[in-house]
Amino acid sequence: MNDFGQKWIIGGLTGLGQIALLARDALASCLTFKLAKRDLLYQIYSIGVKSQSVVLVTGAFTGMVLAAQTYFQFHKVKMDTATLAVVSVSMCSELGPVLTALMVAGRVGASMAAELATMRVTEQIDALRTLATHPVDYLVVPRLLASLIALPLLTTEAMAIGIGSAYVVGVFLYGIDPAYAWWNMLKYSHDVDVQIGIIKSVIYGGIIALVGCYKGLNCGMGAEGVGRATTEAVVYASIAILISNFFLTTALEQLAVIFKL
Amino acid sequence: MIEVRDLNKGFDGHPVLEGVSFQIEHGESVAIIGRSGGGKSVLLKLIIALLQPDRGTVLIEGKNITGLNERQLIEVRAQFGMVFQGAALFDSMTVAENVAFALHRKGGHTAGEINRLVARTLDVVGLRGTERKKPAELSGGMRKRVGLARAIIYEPQILLYDEPTTGLDPIVSDSIDKLIIRVRETLKVTSVVVTHDMRSARRVGQRILMLHDKRLYANGTPEEIFGSTDPVVRQFIDGVADPEDVLF
Question: Lesser CB count within 10 Å: N end or C end of chain A?
Fold first, then answer.
């Protein structure tokens, strides 16, 4: 392997290790540090409430296009009324959590990285440290907890709006029988699909906050450093979400079988 | 007391400080001078452990703070206040929130007490009535005063100033210098002022340390430094460039 490949692998592993250490510090801080409720509420507002429009539009149009595509294929084999069941399972266990996380990574992960990186280059992080405040306690913990709380709520919202939009498209645009469509959806969708989606969203919330904060706190100097940290936060969080989605799907489906959920 | 022993620090293989050692006594006011990029701010950050040295130790009240982790340093840093070159105010907060930050974090004060302390401290730095302003609405001199108010509100034992008068006009610089002296006399704090403004160094320093070529080159009272016949010290005091430093 050439030098570039070695550096790339070592750099990647170092980054992962440092994110793991940041997660450990944040967890330790959660257990020992008295969190300011105001900071947590502000972050929930910033991450959760301000992401509403993005998540609603994403959820709605994903549900609509999924309903349309599924209907086109199922109509050929006279299975129109199974359309909503496919949309429901997909939205709950895969598309809802993944697309919500990707949209939030783009909006919130970038914002976290940019904010913390700007604080770093303007010495505000150093100022925090001189004021006897640990940056993880003050900056990372509220963002991490807010992400862990907001992502499942946003994901649930995306699932609901996606299924609702699919129903409207399927029933009112393509003329699927509403009673059969609804009945099939309830028959083939299970609680475990929603549970898998919610568990995934909590993990994605952690990924977004940790990657965003890590990139912001460790950015290079100057405007270029801030820009690079912002870009990398979005790219790395998105890639981590997509890769972890495969492993989470495999592991959670296996667990569901083992525990007969 | 601050004691620095054989401090070495470099970045990316380039040494910035080599073998720097000195002591600063309780209540003393020391100005650190030297050329731009000569390691003055790095030295200040090593004293408060914002950076870790490659070699050497920093002792605060006899306690070696080198190698302590970030949580252990919280207690050590509670003795310090620092005024940054660019003020480093939290730009999402108002002036009052910036100044009250340490009190809120420390706890043990009611909202009324904090408001009174903030008003009193802003009065000390001559900024009464600016509580609700944001840092972006302030001039450079005002920002540095707010930075000073934020650093002194919890009455630290050691105050570090990183280029407190850089970028300010001579009148505002003079007012900042007078403020530094007033704070030192009122709170009886140990002051370490990094500057390349010779007038400021003479006014605020009871002792002057000069960094040159990565080392502590001179250490003496303002009279000794300003009366020095050493060519390096003289050149810096007189502000004369070497022929090879002339750009055009």
Answer: N
Looking at residue A28, its pLDDT comes to 87
Examine residue A5 and state whether it is found in any structural domain, yes or no: no
Q: How far is B44 from chain A (nearest CA, A)?
A: 12
Mean local confidence (pLDDT), A161-179: 94
* Contact call for A132 and B102, based on CB within 8 A: yes
Residue of A nearest to B74 (CA): A132
Whether pLDDT at B241 is above 90: no
Domain membership of residue A27 (yes or no) is no
**Burial (Cβ within 10 Å: 0-12, 13-18, ≥19) of residue B222:** middle
Structure token pair of residue A91: 């939205």
Tell me how many domains chain A contains.
1
Residue B167 in domain: no
pLDDT of B245 strictly over 80: no
Residues 6+ apart with CB under 8 A from B198: B33, B236, B237, B239
- CA atoms of A30 and A25, how far apart (whole Å): 9
What residues does B180 pair with on adjacent strands?
A: none
Asked if A33 has any chain B CB less than 8 Å from its own CB, the reply is no
In a domain, B181, yes or no: no
Locate B108 and state its tokens: 């043990």
Is A33 in a helix, a strand, or coil?
coil
Domain count, chain B: 1
- Residue B84 C-alpha, separation from nearest chain A C-alpha, in angstroms: 8
Coil, helix or strand for B247?
A: coil
Contact yes or no for B74 and A130 at CB 8 A: no
The answer to whether residues A159 and A189 touch, using CB atoms and an 8 Å cutoff, is no
Could you tell me the CATH number of the domain that includes residue B221? 3.40.50.300
Q: Give the minimum alpha-carbon distance from A204 to chain B in angstroms, rounded to a whole number.
A: 27
Which range of residues forms the domain containing residue A48?
37-258
User: What are the φ and ψ backbone dihedral angles of A170, each rounded to 5 degrees?
Assistant: -65, -45
Q: Is residue B208 part of a domain?
A: yes
Mean pLDDT for B155-178 is 87
A151 within 8 A of A165, measured Cβ to Cβ: no
Tell me which residue range forms the domain holding B212.
1-73+192-241
Q: Quick check: A35 pLDDT over 80? A: no
Which residue in A123, A127, A132 is closest to B78 by CB distance?
A132
Q: Is residue A21 part of a domain?
A: no
Cβ pair A131:B86 closer than 8 A: no
